[in-house]
Amino acid sequence: MAVVRARPKLAVWKFSSCDGCQLSLLDCEDELLQVAEAVEIAYFLEATRAEVKGPYDISLVEGSISTPHDAERIHKVRRQSKLLITIGACATAGGIQALRNFYDVEDFTRCVYAHPEYIDVLAKSTPIHDHVAVDFALHGCPIDKGQLLEVLNATLNGRKPIIPNHSQCVECKLSGSVCVMVAQGTPCLGPVTQAGCGNLCPSHNRGCYGCFGPKETPNTASLAAWTGDRLGRNRRQVKHQYRAFTAYAEPFRKESEAHE
With a threshold of 0.85, does the pTM exceed it? Predict the structure, then answer.
């Protein structure tokens, strides 16, 4: 008699984030039914209030650690997850909210809130891997749904996900896009950014904002020098070029701090 294998339990967790990466899973639409057939969606509050108790075979984690509650909760998620996969810029690099890491968060709370004493927040917004072990990281702001499906497919079939680690410039060349930095003098993080967005901004004559974070071994100093010497940007402009969605990713953080 054939043994019926139970579907792996999938949990999707939210920390400090905008929910955009979770929506990338719901945006799969045509593929979503196949995903639902391959796994048991046991916990996913963005999609349903139904909950199945852990442990979980796969946990997708969106969001950064920004509060004491977050810091405590992520350890609970890790303990009940066989595999933990971080998804998106917040989970992998601290997110846009990590811009506060360069300043005093108490100054912000005093300016914004009438009663800052009610705000319970950490001094820094940090990625998940600063707190617990991560089995795989999927970058992007938001993540690419095709890459998410590839990671799930690979995980379910016991193989390594095929995710590009080359620069955005390769995507530009493959799609035939003219380099906005060379042709138009537009600052662009493409040479130091991991590919994955589908060449979105350069194909619309805009420089890359680095949504997918630094590529493998990025030469940020060389690009910063080009941006300053060839494109005439001052130190402040170069600093802020590296401070966007993935500002606290180490290569971008160090380069921006070098231009303080």
Answer: yes
